[in-house]
Amino acid sequence: MLTKILFTLLVIIAVAVIFRHKTRARTGNERQRPPRAAEGGIRSSTVIYAIGALIIVISALLFVLHWQNQHQIVNIEVTDSGGNTTAYQAYKKSIEGRKFITLDGRQVTLGDNDRVEMTSPE
Q: How far, in Å, CA of 110 to CA of 99, rounded?
């Protein structure tokens, strides 16, 4: 996802550089004209910078929300085939299928007959 964001920013920067280069080349070849009165419109550079800033803010927000989601603690109750229940706690990011790493660093691999219940503490 980060690569998509960086690629989008790269494209926007490339378009801005090309646009700026073309406008400089055009104004350099033409005769100097007297300055016109302000037209009251929005300059294109302002729009480009605003879009760039908006993309950066949204990307940062999505990164923070994803990070918070992955660092939530999940209560995991494992019931084996004999009926014995064991409780664990793990970060959401460390759960991968039938394997997870607990908060204290133990790696747990569940068997096919184990029943698992995951809840978030509230």
A: 6
Measure the CA–CA gap between 27 and 17, rounded to whole angstroms.
15
Is 55 in the same domain as 85?
A: no
Contacts with 84 (C-beta within 8 Å, 6 or more apart), sequence order: none
Burial class (CB in 10 A: 0-12, 13-18, 19+), 83: exposed
b or e along 51-75 (b: 16 or more beta carbons within 10 Å of the residue's beta carbon)? eeeeeeeebeeeeeeeeeeeeeebe
CA separation for the pair 11, 55 (Å, rounded): 12
Nearest alpha-carbon partner for 101 in 91, 112, 86, 116: 91
Q: Which residue bears the tokens 């603690």?
A: 73
Give the model confidence (pLDDT) of 69-103 as tens digits: 999 999 999 999 888 999 999 999 999 989 999 99
Do 77 and 66 fall into the same domain?
A: no
| The residue type at 45 | S
Does residue 38 sit in the same domain as residue 77?
no
On whether the CB atoms of residues 91 and 72 are closer than 8 A, the answer is yes
